[in-house]
Amino acid sequence: MSQILRTLDDSAVGKSIEPLLSQLNMRVFGLEGPVVSPSIALALVVTFVSCILLLMRKSKSKGKRDVLLLLGLPNSGKTALFYKLKDGKEFQTATSMKENDATFQPVISKDGQKSRSLLHVVDSAGHERLRHVAFQFLPVTKAIVYMVDSVDFEDNAAPNAEYLYDLLTNSLVINNEIPILITCNKLDLALFKKLSIKKKLENEINKIRKTRSAQPETEGEEDEDHKVLDLMDNEEEVFDFGKARTDVSFVESIVTGDKIEDILNFTAQHLKISI
């Protein structure tokens, strides 16, 4: 390396920029002759430009919202959907304590055809104690698919409503207008259908509103990027999903039975993938 640098200093290019370095040194330091050799000056310039480009890349990636975030309670079908999109196959899943995070060309048909577009998907662990981890992905989230297990919905209506309430009052969700698709999964095995699940969730959220409103304000303790905002523009009204401050839609799915076309359409609409 030292030999290469000496060669640069002795080359025509090196000799040609020595007068420029001498002039710069005289103007800045008032000294005659170059303070550094042409090779060192070039190395400093390359290092400076590299640092600027790295900072620009980090700044750009920090503000990029390109994640499809899969949320829901444990065993709702999030991980099954993640691998259905990734590999087009059913995957034997277990309750996970860590998120799945990958960028891939999603499978968009039963015969395994893949989209030409890349999709960044995060399947967040559904355990209540890990919910704060899921919310850490909101700054880079473009759209949310919230999975509801239709089979055991009766027992989990209140926890689902609480999770959705926290989403629908989150400042990042509201200010970034993050759309939420609530998909009622395992429809083939369920007694509860989309409309009854929607109505039950609305009733439970209205109960939560009364409970939360009776609690003391804790706004000063909230993170600046995760403030709790009003659920609706008019808090005096009875809540339904049509009054939420971000777009919420309901569909039915059977992830293990290849009924995910509504999820794919939602993804294509909001993350601009080709299907």
Q: Number of folding domains?
A: 2
Question: What is the share of helical residues?
Answer: 40-55%
Amino- and carboxy-terminal Cα gap: 51 Å
Strand content: 5-15%
Keywords: Endoplasmic reticulum, GTP-binding, Membrane, Nucleotide-binding, Receptor, Transmembrane, Transmembrane helix
Transmembrane segments: 35-55
Organism: Acrasis kona
InterPro entries: P-loop_NTPase, Small_GTP-bd, Small_GTPase_ARF, SRP_receptor_beta_su
Furnish the topology, listing elements before pairings:
Layout: H1 2-10, H2 12-29, H3 38-62, E1 67-72, H4 78-87, E2 100-104, E3 119-123, H5 131-135, E4 141-149, H6 153-168, H7 171-175, E5 180-185, H8 194-213, E6 248-252, H9 261-271
Parallel strand pairs: 1-3, 1-4, 4-5, 5-6
Antiparallel strand pairs: 2-3
Helix pairs in contact: 6-8
Task: Describe this structure as you would to a colleague.
43% of the residues lie in helices and 13% in strands. It has 275 residues and is α/β, with parallel strands linked by helices. It folds into two domains: 60 residues, no CATH class; 208 residues, P-loop containing nucleotide triphosphate hydrolases (Rossmann fold). Strand 5, helix 8 and strand 6 form a beta-alpha-beta unit. The radius of gyration is 27 Å and the shape is globular.
Features:
13% strand; nucleotide-binding; 9 helices; 275 residues; Rossmann fold; alpha/beta; GTP-binding; six-stranded mixed sheet
TL;DR?
The protein is an alpha/beta fold and 275 residues long. The protein has helices at 2-10, 12-29, 38-62, 78-87, 131-135, 153-168, 171-175, 194-213, 261-271; strands spanning 67-72, 100-104, 119-123, 141-149, 180-185, 248-252.
